[in-house]
Amino acid sequence: MEIEFGAPNAPFGHVGDCSLYISYDANAAQFVKIANLPDCRSQINTRVPILLPRELPAGDAILRWDQYALHQGNFIEWYVQCADIAVTASSFAKDWGSFNKFSIPAVYPSSIREYRRSTAVPGDDDFYMTGPACVDDCINQCALTAEGEVGYTGYGGEARQEPCGPAPMPSPSPVPVPLPGPNPTPPSVETCEPVGNCDAYSWCTQTGYVEWCNSQDECSAPFCKTASSAPTPSPTTLPPAPVPMPMPTPTPTNRRRCVPTLEGFYNDPALYGPICQAQEQGNVCTAPMCRWEEASLSQQSVRRHRFLGPALIQGRADVESNIVLNANEL
Fold first, then answer.
1. Which of 44, 117, 197, 244 is the most exposed place for a label (fewest CB within 10 A)?
2. Is residue 138 within 8 Å of 164, Cβ to Cβ?
């Protein structure tokens, strides 16, 4: 799922933090939290990818976006938008009645002293977010308001069956020993596989990433790719191969590289460089995060690829349509 908040005539917004909530109640009296958006004015008028928690049940729901604005200095201003959405459940879905739900007014303190310094930004020692815990602390920057954090207000959160972090890698399969004689050639099998490995990041597991790609009706870039497992030919006895004649080394030609645009929200090359490199391996380069760059011969070099930046897996979730939230003002 992707969201967009802001308006063309409000390019700067107010200092403060935003959050996303979801409710399946008809009167929207009870919610659970699904995402934190710290210093959200830095993402105004930008499409922001959000990964829905896999525990959410299927059905019609209400999505709530809110911001506590801290620019006044002695009191808080609130900005809120809601939208109707439809959620498609995964195999891990739970019943809505089992969630640790809450009423929105109860989870936010009324005193501005309970909120961060207005000029603090993510990365500062005294930066924190105020609010309840999310359904899943491992996604959408939800660790900022997890139980035990400075800004946690005592509401929300769900018991996790496993900790955040990389999943164990499976043991390698033994190499099959070919039998003598001709064998029938098995047909090739097409699978939907991830573009890269996300086990290096605390919010992502490669096992979940593989399951997510396998669950897609269409295997589409930039996050997944179609792979064919070619059959292994049976060994046969061949006559001695002739000694090849030396051939001139071909002159490398220019090729394209997928690089960050370094525009707007995507202005950190250390963060978005690996994401664009990962997309390049699938022969895609998705704007506005990345762009194609023609690499000259002098620019070509052998490099080690790193896959999957922090936002890669968050680019799509099982929601029937993208939700675009346009607040009148931030």
1. 244
2. yes
Pair 273, 240: CB distance under 8 Å: no
Q: Residue 193 pairs with which residues in a beta bridge?
A: 225
DSSP assignment of 78-137: EEEEEEEEEE---TT---GGGS--B-HHHHS-SSGGGS--TT--TTSTT----EEEBS-T
Q: 210, 169 in Cβ contact below 8 A?
A: no
Weakest-pLDDT range from 200-204, 230-234, 314-318: 314-318
The answer to whether the CB of 51 falls within 8 A of the CB of 315 is no
- The span from the CA of 163 to the CA of 113, in Å, is 32
Residues paired with residue 61 on neighbouring β-strands, in sequence order = 85
Q: Give per-residue pLDDT as tens, 298-328.
A: 444 444 444 444 443 344 434 343 443 443 4
Answer yes or no: are the C-beta atoms of 123 and 107 closer than 8 Å: no
- pLDDT tens-digit profile of 262-305? 888 788 888 888 888 888 887 888 888 889 887 554 444 444 44
Structure tokens at 72: 């006044």
Backbone CA torsion sign across 233, 235, 238, 242 = positive
Other beta carbons within 10 Å of 297: 10
For the chain, how many residues are written? Answer: 330
Question: Which amino acid, residue 207?
Answer: T
Domain residue spans of the chain? 2-164, 189-227, 255-295
Distance CA 61, CA 54 (A): 15
- Report the alpha-carbon distance of residue 314 to residue 320 in Å, rounded: 15
Task: Give CA 32 to chain center in angstroms.
Answer: 20
